[in-house]
Design brief:
The complex is a heterodimer of chains A (238) and B (225).
Chain A: H1 7-39, H2 53-80, H3 83-115, H4 123-142, H5 148-180, H6 195-237
Helix pairs in contact in A: 1-6, 2-3, 2-5, 2-6, 3-4, 3-6, 4-5
Chain B: H1 2-21, H2 23-44, H3 48-71, H4 76-80, H5 83-89, H6 94-123, H7 128-156, H8 163-188, H9 194-224
Classes of the chains: A mainly alpha (238), B mainly alpha (225).
C-alpha cells in the first residue's frame, strides 16, 4: 500500500485510468439515460413518474459508497499516516455530499406525485438526511483550522467516529420509525423488479460510479498539485 | 496501578473544585433547559393535550441542546493556560483524563438536568409515570450526550470557530441517544418496547464510555502538537 503513497507513482497510475473512466462515463451516460427514460417499460402503477428512480437510486447508493471512501481513507490516513489516503478522503467528501443532496432532492420530487408530499419522516429519508449532515460536518471541520494538517487529521477522527456511528444511527432511525408509523408506504416497488427495469438501473449505477471515480481522480490531482505549490512557496519564503 | 487511581482521583477533585467555585457556570445548562421548556407553551399554546403529547420529546431535545452548549468549552480553558500539556506529561493517559473529565462534567452539569426533569415533566402536563421514566432515561442518556459532545469540543479546541460548528458535528451523532431516550419515556405512556429502549440506552452508555475517550484523546493530542 505504501508504494502508492508516493504521489508521483500514484499520479502515473491515476493518469492512466482517468481517461478511460471519463470516456466510459461520458459514453455510457446517454445510453443509460435513453434506456431509462425511453426504452424501459413504464410502471403499471406509477406510469412514467417512476423513471426518476434511475437518477435517485444510483445517487443514493453512491452517497453511501462515498462515505465508505471518506471513512476508509480517513482510517488509513490516521493509522498509517498515509498522505494520499487523507487527500482522497478530503477529495471524496464534497462528491459524496453532492450525491446525497441529489438523492434527497430527487426523492423529494418523486415523493410529491407519489405520496402527495415533498417530505416524509421515513426512516430511510431521515438517515440519508443525517448522512448529509455528517458530510457537511466533515467538510466544515476540515476547513476550520489555519493549520491545514490539523484540520485534515481532526476531520479524519470525525469521519471515523461517524463510520462507527452510522450503523447505530441507521438502526435507531429504523426503530424510531417502526415505533411511530408501523406501516411504511414507501416500499419502492414491491419485492422484485423485472429485468427490463433492472438493467438500465444497473447501467446508471455503473455510470455514476465511473463519474465518481473520474471526478475523484481529478480532485486528488488538484489537491496534490495545490499542496506541492504551497510547499514550494513555503520553501521559497523560508 | 494505585498511582493511576490516585492521579485520576486528584484530577477529579481538581475538576470538581474548579466547577464548584463557579457554580453559576455549572448551573447554566439547567437554566437553559428551564427557560427553553418555558418557551414551548408560549410557542405552541398552553393546551394540556398538546403539551402532554410533545412534552417528553421537547424536554429531551432541550436537554440535548443544554448538554451540547455546556460541553462546548470543556477543553478550552485547559488548553489556553497550558494545564492540558501538564496533564499529557503526567502519568495518567489522556484517554483516562478524558474519561475523568467527562464524568465530573456529568456530575456537575448532567446530574442537575436529571434531577430537575420531573419538575419540567409536571410543567409539560406529563402523566405520573413519566415523572419516574424521564429522569431514568436522562440518567442513562445524558452521559452519552456528554461523551459525544466532548469529542466535538476536543476536535475544535483551539480553533476560532463558533459553537454552531460544534453543534453541526455533534448533533447528528447524538441522534441515537435521543431516539431511545424518548422511546423509553414514551413506552411508559402506552407505547411498546420500554425495556428494550432502556437496555439500548445502557448499551449506548457503555459503548460511549468505552470508545469516546480514545477519540477525545486523539483529538487532544492533535491540539497539543
Amino acid at each position: 500500500m505504501h508504494a502508492y503513497a508516493n504521489p508521483l507513482r500514484f499520479q502515473r497510475i491515476a493518469d492512466a485510468i482517468r481517461p478511460w473512466t471519463t470516456f466510459l462515463a461520458l459514453a455510457l451516460f446517454p445510453v443509460g439515460l435513453v434506456w431509462a427514460l425511453a426504452v424501459a417499460p413504464a410502471d403499471y402503477q406509477q406510469s412514467d413518474a417512476y423513471r426518476i428512480m434511475y437518477v435517485h437510486v444510483p445517487a443514493a447508493w453512491m452517497s453511501m459508497f462515498t462515505y465508505l471512501v471518506v471513512g476508509g481513507g480517513s482510517a488509513v490516513a490516521l493509522i498509517w499516516r498515509h498522505p494520499l489516503a487523507e487527500i482522497a478522503a478530503r477529495a471524496a467528501a464534497p462528491i459524496g455530499a453532492c450525491f446525497t443532496a441529489i438523492a434527497l432532492v430527487t426523492g423529494s420530487i418523486w415523493g410529491k406525485p407519489m405520496w402527495g408530499t415533498w417530505w416524509v419522516w421515513d426512516a430511510r429519508l431521515t438517515s440519508v438526511l443525517i448522512l448529509f449532515f455528517l458530510y457537511l460536518g466533515y467538510i466544515a471541520l476540515y476547513d476550520a483550522f489555519e493549520d491545514a494538517s490539523r484540520g485534515a487529521r481532526a476531520a479524519s477522527i470525525l469521519a471515523l467516529v461517524g463510520l462507527v456511528n452510522i450503523p447505530i444511527v441507521k438502526f435507531s432511525v429504523d426503530w424510531w420509525n417502526t415505533l411511530h408509523q408501523p406501516s411504511s408506504v414507501l416500499r419502492m416497488d414491491g419485492p422484485s423488479m423485472p429485468p427490463s427495469m433492472l438493467w438500465p438501473l444497473l447501467l446508471m449505477a455503473l455510470v455514476f460510479k465511473l463519474y465518481m471515480v473520474s471526478v475523484l481522480l481529478v480532485r486528488i490531482r488538484t489537491e496534490t498539485a495545490e499542496r506541492r505549490i504551497s510547499a514550494l512557496r513555503g520553501a521559497e519564503t523560508a | 496501578m494505585s498511582g493511576l487511581v490516585g492521579a485520576a482521583l486528584a484530577l477529579a477533585r481538581r475538576d470538581l473544585m474548579l466547577a464548584l467555585r463557579r457554580p453559576g457556570e455549572a448551573l447554566l445548562p439547567v437554566l437553559f433547559l428551564l427557560t427553553g421548556t418555558a418557551l414551548f407553551p408560549l410557542g405552541v399554546g398552553p393546551g394540556a393535550e398538546t403539551l402532554a403529547r410533545i412534552g417528553s420529546g421537547v424536554i429531551w431535545v432541550l436537554a440535548l441542546f443544554a448538554v451540547t452548549v455546556g460541553t462546548d468549552r470543556l477543553w478550552a480553558a485547559d488548553l489556553e493556560d497550558g494545564s492540558l500539556e501538564q496533564l499529557e506529561l503526567g502519568i495518567l493517559p489522556l484517554e483516562l483524563v478524558a474519561l475523568v473529565r467527562c464524568l465530573v462534567h456529568w456530575l456537575v452539569t448532567g446530574l442537575p438536568l436529571v434531577v430537575i426533569s420531573p419538575l419540567l415533566a409536571l410543567l409539560m402536563q406529563q402523566p405520573p409515570a413519566v415523572l419516574l421514566a424521564l429522569p431514568a432515561a436522562l440518567l442513562l442518556g445524558t452521559p452519552v450526550l456528554i461523551m459525544i459532545g466532548a469529542i466535538g469540543a476536543a476536535l475544535l479546541v483551539g480553533s476560532r470557530r463558533s459553537q454552531a460548528l460544534t453543534a453541526l458535528l455533534v448533533l447528528p451523532l447524538q441522534i441515537p441517544a435521543l431516539i431511545f431516550g424518548v422511546g423509553a419515556v414514551e413506552a411508559t405512556t402506552g407505547g411498546i418496547g420500554g425495556t428494550v429502549a432502556y437496555l439500548i440506552l445502557g448499551a449506548l452508555l457503555l459503548g460511549s464510555l468505552a470508545l469516546a475517550p480514545f477519540a477525545i484523546a486523539a483529538a487532544l493530542r492533535l491540539a497539543l502538537e
